[in-house]
Structures are given as structure tokens and as C-alpha cells.
Give the backbone structure.
Amino acid sequence: MRNYIVRSAARAAAFSAALACGAAGAAPAAEPAASAPSASDDMPMADYLGLLAQIAPAAEEGARAYLQAYQQRCGRQLATADLRRAMSDGDGDPMLMAMIRSSNLRDSATLAQLAQRIACERRATR
């Protein structure tokens, strides 16, 4: 049950942040809608993490741990759009969801183990 609650909170945080991203990047009504946003139009990571912190602090902590592990294992930063996809595609990236759960439980040992298993290649989109 607790896992379900954490997963639901993470999904709600991702959904709310995605809505905020859409609202922040919305074009004025007089202008035609633009095509899909490019990576340069994406919300800054600090803003996205700030929204997560307001909505679900464990989601923000887990996302920060995921970002740090990704940086250490893969040698590059994850883009905000990639983190948003990891948070919201389907049930979310299983590793990210596990890191959010571990953050919520304050389980630093599991969090460290999960950080060692971060995959650098992108998952196929559904």
C-alpha cells in the first residue's frame, strides 16, 4: 500500500509539474500554437525540481538522487525533458520510482544500491 501511495504521489507530482510547464510555456491566444517544444524551450531543471519539492518532497529528493547518479555513472547531465519523461511515461522509470520510494523511506543504503544500477542508454518510447 505504501509503495502505491509513493508511486501515486510521484505521478501526481509529475502531472502537476507537466501542467505547470505547459502553462509557463503557453503562447498568447493571438499567436498560433507552436509545434512541439524543443529542448531549448524546456523548463530549467531547477524550476522543475522546485515544483516537485512543493508537490511531493520525496519525489524531488528521489529525482535529485537519480540526477546525481546519472551524472556520476554516465558522465553527463540528464535534460529536464528526459527527467520529465522518466517521471511520467507509463508507470515511470522503475529506477526513478524506486529512488523516490527509497527517499521517502529515508533508506540511504537502498538509494546507494540503486544509484549503482542507473542505465545510461535511453529506454525505448512506448
In short: The two ends are 27 Å apart (CA to CA). The first helix runs from residue 2 to 24. Residues 2-20+43-115 form one domain.
